[in-house]
Structures are given as structure tokens and as C-alpha cells.
Amino acid sequence: MKSVWLAALGAVLLAALAGCAVQPSIEVREAAELQQWQAPLNRDAPALGRIWSYPRMQWISVDELVEAVAQDDYLMLGEKHDNPDHHRIQWYLLYRLQQQQRLGALTMEMLKQEQQSLVDRAAQLQDPGLSDLKAALRWDEVKGWDWPFYGPMMQLALSQGVPLRAGNLDRARIREIYGQGEEVAALLGPDQQERVQKELEAQIIESHCGQAEGGHLKAMVRVQQNRDLSMAQAMAGLPRVSVLVAGGYHIRRDLGVPLYLLRQEPDAKLATLAMIELTEEADGGLDKALLNHQGVYDYLWFTPQMPRPDYCADWAKHSGGS
């Protein structure tokens, strides 16, 4: 019992220290630097830093991954939003593609469509610094996205003349979709829509600690699907490799953005890479983890884990009682 209590205390202290410390830059130009892990948990896991390729059904090197995705039309990078290692990997991959002159475009979940005009004006700036770019995008008005995690990626794209696109829905559009009952079944087809609907409902119920139901649940599914559709439309038709940075769930081949993009371009060469946090359970059953993600992603890159509170332990507090 004492060891469990000490472990929990250690996670809390690490989280507190991470919040107080100055965040290191996500700009990583050498693959070896990616091994300087920032997330604190499970750094000793045997699979740490390894990359699994489903197309080849084997572990591959960083260079082999870069060589493979550089040949694709679309590349989707799935993250845990609060994990600094995921953003370091993303920046590194964008940098490597840019070095090969294969970075065609960048679309970001973190930008709403209403911000595209700001992005377009920022693209006219001459060699903008991060602070200049932050001001131009009015980032302080954006809630929930950590500038040190995303600013350098946008700066990399704009500094090289790479198109930057806002992938997410406007707030007004989200309210409209939530309230009007608009469906996207016609885009997926009824059979596929039924499957996706059920799986998304199950995921939303789980992520909301079993508290989502009825019309509220169906509205959240509508918003999720329309967000995925919005990201697919934003990155479609752009210069290749057209890259998307989004949450890991959005880039799932069986549920997310790839469904809508491939419906528009059935013959497109598309790759999805998810950064997967190693938990003690996941590392202990690595074969099971690889099996569970087959058909979901094309590549997995295993990283340490960030400490997080148990929101379901006090649902009323975190949900505001709703």
C-alpha cells in the first residue's frame, strides 16, 4: 500500500514540476535528440522510442519511416495534446520532409476555420519570429492549445512558404451542428455510418465517464464526425505531402479523417502515424497493443506517458455538475 501511495505522490510531484518548468523547444533536428524524453512516466519501458510499421509488419528505424511517408500524398500525425514528446516527434518529421522538399502543406486541428484569414495574413510576414507569429494569429484568444507545442510547427511551414490550413470547425458552426441534428450519413453511406456511429458513441460514453446519453450523445457524435470531415476537406487537394496534425483519435483509419478523405480521393496514398504512450500494462502486453491498433493506424511510435488526474473519480467537480 505504501509503494502505491509513493508512486501516486511521485506522479503528482512530476506533474507539478513539469507545469512550473520552462518548456524546452520542440525543435529537434537530429533523431538522437528525440531520445531525450520529456514526459516522465515509463521511461524504462523496453519498447520506448521504437516504431512499428503495419505495412511491413516489423519494427523500423526513424530514417525508414521518413523514407516511407515522404512517398505518400497525405500524412496524418496523431498526438496526445499535452505530451511534449509527441510534438517534438511531429516537428522533427515536418523538418525532415521540408529538408527533402517534400513538405507540401500543413493542416492543424488547433486552428479554426475562422482563423484562416489571420493565417493568410501571417503568411505575408517576412521571417516572423515566434512572438510575431503568435500576435498575428491572436493566439492568446485561442483556448486550450499550448503555443510552445504548436507555434514552432506553424513557423516552420510559413517560413518555407508551405500552405498552412485551419482544420477545425468554427465555434458558431459547432453550435449549429450540435443543435440542428445534422447528419453526415450521406457522406459515409448508411452501413458505414451505422458502424462509425456506434463506435464513436461507445468512445464518447467512456471518455465522459458513462455520463453521455440520448440526444446529447448523438449531438457529440455529429460534432466529432463533422470535425473529421472539416479536417479532411481542409487538407485535400493541397501540395503533397499534405500533413495533418491532430489528436490521435481523429486520425484513426476506421473512424476518423481518413474515411472522409479517401471518400473524396479513393486512390490517394495516405499514411497515419500515432504516437502511443507506454503504460505498464501496454508495455507488458506489447503484442496485444500491436494487435489492437492494426487497421487503425499505419505506424506507431512509442513514447513515455504524461501524468494525468483521474477525472472520473470526481466527475461532478470536473464537469460542473452537468
TrEMBL record:
- InterPro entries hit by this protein: Cofac_haem-bd_dom, Fe3_uptake_reg_CjrA_prd
Q: Where is the signal peptide?
A: 1-21
* Entry-linked PROSITE patterns: PROKAR_LIPOPROTEIN
Q: What is the lineage of its organism?
A: Bacteria, Pseudomonadati, Pseudomonadota, Gammaproteobacteria, Oceanospirillales
The record's section on SUPFAM superfamilies has:
EreA/ChaN-like (SSF159501)
**Organism source for this protein?**
Aestuariirhabdus litorea
Pfam families associated with the record: Cofac_haem_bdg
Q: Which CDD domains match?
A: ChanN-like
Q: Where is the Haem-binding uptake Tiki superfamily ChaN domain?
A: 65-261
Q: What is this protein called?
A: Haem-binding uptake Tiki superfamily ChaN domain-containing protein
Which keywords annotate this record? Signal
Q: Where are the transmembrane segments?
A: none
